[in-house]
Amino acid sequence: MSDPAAHPAGAERAASTVEDPAVLGAVPASLCAHARDSRADGRPLVELEDAATGYGPDLRLREVTLTATAGQRVAVLGPNGGGKTTLFRLLLGELPLRGGRLALHDDVAVVPQTERSRLDFPVSALDVVLMGTIARRPWWRGPRREDREQALAALEVVGLTDRAGAAFGALSGGQRQRVLVARALVRDARILLLDEPFTGLDTTSGDRLHQLIDRLAEAGHVLLIATHDVRQAQGWDRVLCLNGRQVAYGAPAETLSVETLEATYGRDLLRLDDGRTVRLLGDHHHH
Amino acid sequence: MGALLDPWRDPLMQRALIEVVLLGIVGGTLGTWIVLQRLSFSAEALPHAMFPGLVGAALLGLPLVLGGAAGLVVAAMVIALASRVRGLDRDAAISIAMTALFGLGVLLALSPDSPPGIGELLFGDVLALTTGDLVLAAGLTVVVLGALRVLHARLAIVAFDRESAASLGVGPGRIDLLLLLLVALAVLICVQALGNLFVAAVLVAPAATARLLGRSLVASMAVAVAVAIACGVGGLLLSYHADTAAGASIALVTVVAYLLAAAASRTSASRRAPRPA
């Protein structure tokens, strides 16, 4: 998403980005290699064409066609069981492609919901970030100094350098979410999948995470963000609506119509009197 | 003071002391991972599942350690495979595998050719260990500790966030299998001293006690090792003075230590909790 004029949401993103170097550090080149080159040529990082996947013989998700380029923030909307997690598992290679075409032009890393990790596990924030370096280490070797330096750099990006030694379970929900973002960053993956990262966060923590997402997009990552917040999705670059299949994909202004959201959420959608604002009913915070 | 020191002049007790120190080191370190990975039930089940291997070795005149090893490897693989069956949770898989294998062992044990002394396989005899047994136990202890050191980061990832482990490049099923194989090795170290009915006392209870007291992973392991060794020594002294079975005495002291730690932890937590206005 390099041309705000072509996509009004881009201009909104630029306006909403708050520069606060004391909170969030700049993204160093070591954590987003080749980012500037890719943003310049606008090469796509994620391409899906009529893709289908599922567990066993059942297709849980089908007809997904999208292209996401470096720098884009893609909101992934859909009801529980609509296919958001299934899509992420397909992109992570945990589910097979059962039809269509899938092309990933960089590595993929996921930022899971913090509530899925064990808060009673005796591990520090730095230890959690170092977990992201394990795939590139020989199986017999522990983290080296350069691994630790990279992990600390990632913690600086998410504004948590001073909490590196703190127990993960003792951090706030927003801080834990940012630690998991840092863990994804040290994997040197430019395709980041965020699984409902705003769940359970207060306004301040949510705003800070929002700023971090903007900053990572500007650094050349593509971020697919599972969310139930339609208003939030309006501020990002692309919206993907799923309900067992792809309902819509495109710029928010073109995609977020009441009709599309009704097709995505069905009965869970309540249309308010002004005809433009929509609100989702029911609990969408758990799979 | 004599009651505490005199028993160790006996060479049998000296060998038993070396054995309980080895058991404490393995039980404390491996047990911490067993508790963190929620594999306590597996640690209890594996010794029972090895029973047909022990009985089979006795019937064939092979060394017990070989039969136990074969039985444990088969049991670990059956449990790991059964755990992957969709719709069957891990505890159910272990229960089914354990019951089937234990039943097979009982069938073999009840055969007319069954040798005398099968009871020692169930209850162990820490005072009957030879120097060769201790050397073997020490060698297996080194193997278990080395494997835990190598696997440390992967074990931590699976214990911390099992669902995301695969996306980080760590297969949780593979780690489970490796950990269960290490448990199997640990059982081989413990079974001759404690018998397969009391192995869980060393592999689970000290680590569970340490989880109540230790703050970090390394501290939990250190506390678990200390608790396991202290309880082993206490159990041997109890056995010596009360003329009770050594394995059962060690298990009893270990469980009492856990209950005391749990009571202390609860009392401490209630003191810290704010009182209602």
TrEMBL record, chain A:
The keyword Transport applies. InterPro entries: AAA+_ATPase, ABC_transporter-like_ATP-bd, ABC_transporter-like_CS, Metal_Ion_Import_ABC, P-loop_NTPase. Belongs to the ABC transporter superfamily. This is Metal ABC transporter ATP-binding protein. The keyword Nucleotide-binding applies. GO terms for molecular function: ATP binding. It comes from the Bacteria. It comes from Patulibacter brassicae. Residues 46-269 form the ABC transporter domain. Keywords: ATP-binding, Nucleotide-binding, Transport. PROSITE patterns: ABC_TRANSPORTER_1, ABC_TRANSPORTER_2.
Automatic annotation (TrEMBL), chain B:
Gene3D superfamilies: ABC transporter involved in vitamin B12 uptake, BtuC. Keywords: Membrane, Transmembrane, Transmembrane helix, Transport. It is found in: Cell membrane; Membrane. Its main location: membrane. The chain crosses the membrane at residues 16-36, 57-80, 92-110, 122-148, 177-205, 217-240, 246-265. It comes from the Bacteria. The keyword tRNA-binding does not apply. It is a multi-pass membrane protein. InterPro entries: ABC_BtuC-like (IPR037294), ABC_TroCD (IPR001626). Pfam families: ABC-3 (PF00950). Belongs to the ABC-3 integral membrane protein family. PANTHER family: ABC-TRANSPORTER METAL-BINDING PROTEIN, IRON TRANSPORT SYSTEM MEMBRANE PROTEIN HI_0360-RELATED. This is Metal ABC transporter permease.
